[in-house]
Amino acid sequence: MQQTRVLTGITTSGTPHLGNYVGAIRPAVASSLRADVEAFYFLADYHALIKVQDPARVQRSTLEIAATWLACGLAPEQVWFYRQSDVPEIAELNWLLTCVAGKGVLNRAHAYKASIDKNREAGEDDDAGISAGLFMYPVLMAADILLFNAHKVPVGRDQIQHIEMARDFAQRFNHLYGGAGNEHFVLPEAVIEEQVATLPGLDGRKMSKSYDNTIPLFCPRPELKKLIYSIVTDSLAPGQAKDADASNVFQLYQAFADAGETASMRQAFADGIAWGEAKEALFERIDAEISPLREKYESLMARPSEIETILRDGASRLRRQLAAPRLAALREAVGLRPLSQAGTVDVPVAPGKPSLPVFKQYREDDGRFYFKLMVDERVLLQSGGFDSPRDAGQHIAVLRREGYAPADPALTLGEGVVAHEVHSALAALAAEDARKAAQKAGDAR
Ligand code: TRP
Fold first, then answer.
1. Is residue 68 one of the residues assigned to a domain?
2. Same structural domain for residues 284 and 137?
3. pTM of this prediction?
4. What confidence tens digit (pLDDT) does each residue in 236-253 have?
5. CA nearest ligand 1 atom 4, residue
6. Which pLDDT belongs to residue 31?
7. Ligand 1, CB cutoff 6 Å, lining residues
8. Which protein residue's CA is at the shortest distance from atom 8 of ligand 1?
9. Whose CA is nearest to atom 14 of ligand 1?
């Protein structure tokens, strides 16, 4: 049977909350039990370092999250369960991907842009306090996914863009280093559990560490009750009809209840259930599901060395069976090869693919900026000097958009080149752009 590879990670920067459970852990554990799925779950502790620079917290969170997944039913002998930093191949692939990732693509990452916006609001420099780690976050995430050629990646909505970027880097890598029939990377797809992808927190916004509105998954029962009673509601009185769909109490309830229970609760809302009563039902419903898991969790937390052994064992099997051979093939593909093998290796070459023309921009000793249009080593077009790289870039843009005008005083044809060759080079570039745009549009669907 062709198994689907499903992979997901949790950043070890906090204590698991109900939102993590409903949005990630529970669906992940459920799908791990399917025979047609090969599941990968890992603790994204390299990612944690981007946000958390408190070593004790990173360690504590790693332990809590590992214990949580195990308590929630993950069977480490049936799935790949590991800690990201135990698999150095991920860090190495991160570099290979860094070298194909477009900086412009990373500039558009929501998380990075949000940090810039915050700085602007505070009147700070755009990049104040932003580490290169934050900027490179999507590349590391792509390495997590692509190293194992995962097909599906269950994530929250806020991560969809990261999966799209992983596809983009994979495509660039495949394009550069793969021939027809030799695609190195599978293009991963994000999977969102439609019904319960994001859980509201205590204040009604998405439940998230960053809003400080979470309900810890395994807090003691009395605290769970207290937190649930503190959920913000409107001030409708008992007996007044309440809009279930607009209520965070209802949304939370729905995430834990089956279809029948949900339908009765919806009716109760229409009939004007009191908020206190609705919260009581919510508390009991959640606790019924969580309390057996909480017991397992507490007993695991008391034996951290067992968890350590499970994680190490998972990582070492994974490295031996998948990560190391995969990385060896990728190193080979990019040219990190034993010199002794030079010329003897069967290197896959894209057969007969004509090279695309390129624009090369550069600066001369006279301090001015120039460009050439080249195919392989042959210069088709040579520009005169521009005052700034921007001016040169704009001239290229006009050329690409409007075509080559032989009368253009800023340009001379290369030695032995006729205008016709320049026209067809520009046409080839335009065709390649169109092909990429079409591919992108196709992928977005
Ligand atoms: N970025 C993810 C999050 O914050 C965690 C993560 C890291 C991840 N690497 C991943 C998720 C790879 C899926 C696949 O939720």
1. yes
2. no
3. 0.73
4. 999 999 999 999 999 999
5. 11
6. 81
7. 7-11, 44, 47, 141, 144-145, 153, 155, 159
8. 9
9. 8
In this structure, the answer to whether residues 317 and 289 fall within a common structural domain is: no
| Assigned domain for 203 exists | no
Higher pLDDT, 163 or 408: 163
Ligand 1 centroid vs 141 CA: distance in angstroms? 6
Q: Label residue 389 by pLDDT band (50, 70, 90).
A: very high
Q: What is the DSSP letter of 39?
A: E
Q: What is the pLDDT of residues 2-60, one digit of tens each?
A: 789 999 998 999 999 999 898 888 888 888 888 899 999 999 999 999 999 999 999 99
Q: Are 35 and 165 in the same domain?
A: yes
Measured distance CA(42)–CA(65) in Å, rounded: 10
Contact indicator for 156, 24 with CB cutoff of 8 Å: yes
CATH classification at residue 250: 1.10.240.10
List CB contacts of 71: < 8 A, sequence separation 6 or more: 218, 293, 294, 296, 297, 300
**Ligand 1 centroid from CA 41, angstroms:** 10
Expressed in percent and rounded to 5, the helix, strand and coil fractions of the chain are 55, 10, 35
Question: 101 lies in which domain range?
Answer: 4-197+303-334
* Ligand 1: centre distance to CA 54 (Å): 20
Residues pairing with 83 in the sheet: 43
- Clarify whether residues 363 and 264 are in a common domain: no
- Note whether 141 and 234 are same-domain residues: no
Distance 325 CA to ligand 1 centre (A): 23
Which of 7, 8, 90 to probe ligand 1 with, by most ligand atoms within 8 A of CB?
8
